[in-house]
Each structure stands twice: as structure tokens, then as C-alpha cells.
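RECORD TYPE: inverse folding
INPUT: C-alpha cells
STRUCTURE:
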């Protein structure tokens, strides 16, 4: 009896604290909205996608080897990301973006570095597994929970960019993420019911 009287006020206090926190928790939940493949392939999409959402996703001074927003995203969702592929990762130069992604994800994730050109001398550390593969030609030979296509689509002619996007979608598990970047603008897509949705808040 005494114990009950003691716990009720505490339970009420906890509930009211949770109620106060709920709007903040909602504001930081991952939120997506539909986006069509046609939209994704329009150059205007990239700047619109980059500026959408509560967090700034544009880096004006882009370090070629560090995608800060991507790495923050990977660190935040690392519990969901067991397999990550950095596609078009510049293996020739040691896939520097893959190295920072591995650091963000921690040691428990399997990390794949994918490019059409082979690794340069001295590559690669034990941080990741290197693959020679064209994402234009076929989906990856394994499924992943997150896949990055950074500064790859914008170097491809439109029909190849479309193939690369379709094959990336096929390479993702349901609920998986595509981390994109063009000209330093970073954006996020999620595979929802077999289609891409744009992440507008995370
Ligand atoms: C401009 S670099 C971007 C490197 C790195 N992602 C970054 O943002 O610093 C483009 C990379 O995409 C690779 N690439 C081009 N076509 C590709 C394809 N079809 N499949 C996989 N990688 C490709 C190139 O070999 C190159 O390493």
C-alpha cells in the first residue's frame, strides 16, 4: 500500500515529463515523403533535397574526403546499419570517404568500398572490403542497409544515372538508406515499400 502511494506521484511526474518531451522527440524522428524516380533524376532535385529538412544539408566548403552530414547520419543510425556500401568511392585513392564512414559506423558494421577502377597501391586497410563493380550495369552482389552514391550520378549521362539509381534501390534492404551527394550537397533517401522516399527530417 505504502509502496503504491509512493510510486503514483512519481509515475505521474514521469508521464508529464514524457508528454513534454514528445513534441521534441517527434521533431527528431526520421520523416520521409514520396518522391518519384523522375523527380530524383531532375538536376533541380538535388538542391531542393539538400535544402529540405530541419538540418542544414549543404556544405559550402566541401572537403572532398569528408561528408559531415552523411557521417552524422551514419553515426546516428548505426544500430540499423549492419551493411554499408560506398559506391563510386575512389578506390584508386584509397577510398578516403569510406574510411570516415567506417569510423562513423563503428566496428560492428560490414563496410564495402565499390568502384569501377581498382584500388591504388597500398589500398586497402582492413576497414573495408574492396569490390570492382559498375552500379550502372547491375545491382550490388549483396544487399545493404545503407548505400552511398556521392558525386557519381552527376558525372553520368541521364540514362546511366537512372540505371545507377534503380540498381542502388535494388541493392538496398527494405527500410535501407541511400546517402547521396552532388557538388557537395548531401541528401538522404529511404527505401519504403520498394520505392525511394526522400528523408525530410532525421
Ligand atoms: C568524382 S568521383 C567521387 C569519389 C567519392 N565518392 C567522393 O565523393 O569523393 C566518382 C567516382 O565514381 C566512380 N564511378 C564512375 N562510374 C561508376 C560506376 N558505374 N559504378 C561505380 N563507380 C563508378 C569513379 O571511378 C570515381 O571513383
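DESIGNED SEQUENCE:
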Amino acid at each position: 500500500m505504502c509502496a503504491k502511494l509512493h510510486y503514483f506521484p512519481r509515475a505521474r511526474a514521469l508521464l508529464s515529463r514524457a508528454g513534454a518531451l514528445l513534441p521534441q522527440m517527434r521533431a527528431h524522428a526520421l520523416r520521409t515523403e514520396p518522391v518519384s524516380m523522375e523527380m530524383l533524376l531532375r538536376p533541380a532535385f538535388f538542391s531542393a533535397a539538400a535544402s529540405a529538412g530541419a538540418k542544414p544539408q549543404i556544405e559550402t566548403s566541401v572537403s572532398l574526403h569528408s561528408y559531415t552530414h552523411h557521417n552524422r547520419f551514419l553515426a546516428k543510425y548505426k544500430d540499423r546499419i549492419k551493411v554499408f556500401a560506398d559506391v563510386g568511392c575512389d578506390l584508386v585513392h584509397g577510398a578516403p570517404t569510406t574510411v570516415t564512414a567506417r569510423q562513423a559506423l563503428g566496428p560492428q558494421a560490414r563496410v564495402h568500398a565499390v568502384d569501377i577502377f581498382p584500388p591504388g597501391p597500398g589500398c586497402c586497410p582492413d576497414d573495408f572490403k574492396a569490390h570492382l563493380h559498375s552500379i550502372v550495369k547491375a545491382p550490388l552482389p549483396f544487399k545493404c542497409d545503407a548505400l552511398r552514391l556521392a558525386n557519381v550520378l552527376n558525372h553520368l549521362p541521364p540514362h546511366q544515372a537512372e540505371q545507377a539509381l534503380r540498381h542502388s534501390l535494388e541493392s538496398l534492404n527494405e527500410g535501407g538508406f541511400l546517402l547521396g551527394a552532388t557538388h557537395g550537397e548531401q541528401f538522404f533517401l529511404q527505401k519504403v515499400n520498394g520505392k525511394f522516399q526522400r528523408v525530410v527530417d532525421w
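NOTES: The mean pLDDT is 84.
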